Amino acid sequence: MKIPLSVEAVENKHKEYLSIWANEKNTMLPSPILPYFYSKDKLNISAKESRVEGIRLSNYQKANFYKYEFQTRKQLVSTRDDLERRFGKGKVFEANIPFVLRNRIDNPDIYTEYPNTNQLKFNYLDIEQYCPPERLFPISEDRITSISFAGNNRKIRTLYLKKDSLGDKKLLEAYSKVYTKPDIEVLYNKSYDIPMILQRCKLNGIETSWMSKDGSRPYVGGKSGVHLEGEMVYDILDSTRGDQSLTGNVPTKGLKVVSNYFGFKSKAKVLVGSEIAAAVGSPELVAYNKEDVERLFHLFDIYWAGIAYTAEDLRIPLNMAVDLNVTDLGLIVLGDLFREHNIIADGDNSSRFPEIFLRKKKPGEPNYQGAVVYIEQRGLFKPVLKADYSSMYPSIVAAFSLSPDTTTLLRYDRYQKNGFRIEEDKDTFTYFIPDNALRKNVVLQVVKKPGFLSETVDRFLKERAKYKAEYKKTGSKIARARSDIAKVKANGGIYGVMGAAHHPFGFAPIAVATTGIGRECAKLLINVLDTLYPKSVIEVDTDGVYFTAEEYNKERIIHYFNDALKKKFKKDLNLTIDIDDYPAGYFHKAKNYILLTKEGNVILHGAAMKASSKDGISKKLIQDLARAKLEGKSTDSIVLRYKNLQDFQLSDFAMQVTLGRRIHEYKSINCIPVNIAMQAQKAFNIKPQVGNVHHYVKTIYGYQLFQLAKKDDLDLKYYSKKIDKIVKMFELEYELTAPIGSFIGKESESWEQEEDTKIVEKKAPMRLDDFL
């Protein structure tokens, strides 16, 4: 490889270092740069001061800035926070860029000077754990019963307990002695296998330093979730969660379900909870455990090439590529461009464009108007077609020369609902874009010249097309990886951060212009479909239009669409449209619908259909009603079966909740996440930690941790109401005289959500796979 295994920023004796692991050796490199931020004002602070000239991102004009450098990140953060307390935000610029990324932006080849040239050592790992019959999932107090693992040669070894063994101390000690200290741990769900091994070691009084290359103690936490010094963790679940090709083709993202979908041929007997507990020490459990490692091999071979290529393409260490999100991708891609053009981000979007981001808004109201999203017709349709835009937003950025050096937000005019228009003179285009979130017409001017940002997006899109064609022709995994990274750089790395309120490199006028032009494109496509196939449009979604027609002509649709685009915008856009077809679809409301694929799979879309917090009965009922509805079968027997709740097991009533923040950060200690976490701590000594997942049920006494509940105490009226709502959702006949109200850029609230069950979590960075 041309890049190292991992890089982390560390402080030692009040100086910053980069801890670099490559070829199983650690290099403590004194950081080539000091932590710094910029300010337009001269500040009376303890830091090294210098004056620099740069181009302000807000108006693309040259300006003088003060650059303040600190010995450590802690000093920078402390000073930044103090200035913000005294003067408010916006006093300092580029003060929140992670230091490892700051080094990469300022010195693009810094990490390629420490390449991991040796063959990487992998450890594929999967464990099994005893779970008592009264619980759905094991906890840290339950013994590990089997550990299967393999290295690069993929010869699987298994250590397991005998049937009558009640403790796992010797098992863990045996594993510690054969542990090879790999470069990369490969597993499925990093929140389970290694954390559970560490917790079991702690409870057994076993030191855990054997899991780190330098003998330091591992810990659970940090950006990657698990820290093993000198090693990194690759969680294949992260890859499958973001793989859009799985949507509708698999009911869950479990290891067995996904690997089976990708052609894995199972030989071992499939065991479920109670069977796993009963099979301790048996050949069946060993075979079951080993096969899970074989499944890891299968999925690793599908996904790893893309991660490795991303690291080398972006010149970042592997650990950064594994955990890469859109925020960081934007820092890298845009950081390279801004460095080349000497641009300094004077604030973030919210401070540069307060009229958009800091105006008084209602809860859930977007900063600016996004895509056209509404439902025209409800009910069952056969067939269902989707005219799907291909990379529409980045294509607009490229075709309209949208870039900080070409695009200026001139003013805000009085709102006109259908007031989109274009004025052209010798040197510029001026766009008047109605925005129903701002209740203004946003007036933007674009200079008639290529912009550095639009040229870069155009290059990425051409790369995407080239490698996509190569992949279709050859099936090359490298070609697919190159195609995917080109797309996410254009879509997520550039367009995806333009409208982010607090991304330092965001530039809101580009986001407003892109979505505004995109809405006009969507309207043109809707008009074309209505003209060619009257009353065919069902639902308009962010990335396409659902319609129904017995026969259709794709080439005809594309021809009329691009002809309409040329007349509207006075230029050739040549937006590509793919047509996906489904035998049937049932549409409940905007962004909430079900589809039947040609392969017979059911796709659930939207919070009303697939919220993860639903109880098992609701999930099963939706699946059963959805399939019956899509296949045109009677639902009477299904409804009757679910009316008799006494026939279901206690586990069917369980709901899931995640502790999304620390206990003291919740407004009320009575909310469900806190309530259930505290019950788990009291009953099983499970320390409340961010990310903990618990299952609970609704009883006549209130919400109760599943492990503590009895079936006789269930609040059956509560569950019956849920059943009635689901049945009503599927059985109502709809007659619409006008489109249902649209909403912008935000999925609707679940129709069943109750005020006391809302879970407020910190917003996580968007994943790269959201743009694939």
Structure in words:
The chain has 772 residues and is α+β, with helices and mostly antiparallel strands. It has three domains: 122-320, Nucleotidyltransferase, domain 5 (2-Layer Sandwich), CATH 3.30.420; 328-585, Palm domain of DNA polymerase (Alpha-Beta Complex), CATH 3.90.1600.10; 613-734, Topoisomerase I, Chain A, domain 4, CATH 1.10.132.60. It contains 22 helices and 30 strands. Helix 10 (326-340) packs across helix 15 (477-498), helix 13 crosses helix 16 (508-532) and helix 14 (452-474) runs antiparallel to helix 15 (477-498). Residues 733-766 have low confidence and may be disordered.
Within CATH, the superfamily of the largest domain carries the name B family DNA polymerase, palm domain
Strand order of the largest sheet: 9-8-7-10-13
End-to-end separation: 25 Å
**CATH level 1 name of the largest domain:** Alpha Beta
CATH topology of the largest domain: Palm domain of DNA polymerase
The structure class reads alpha+beta
CATH hierarchy: architecture of the largest domain? Alpha-Beta Complex
Count of structural domains: 3
Radius of gyration (CA) equals: 28 Å
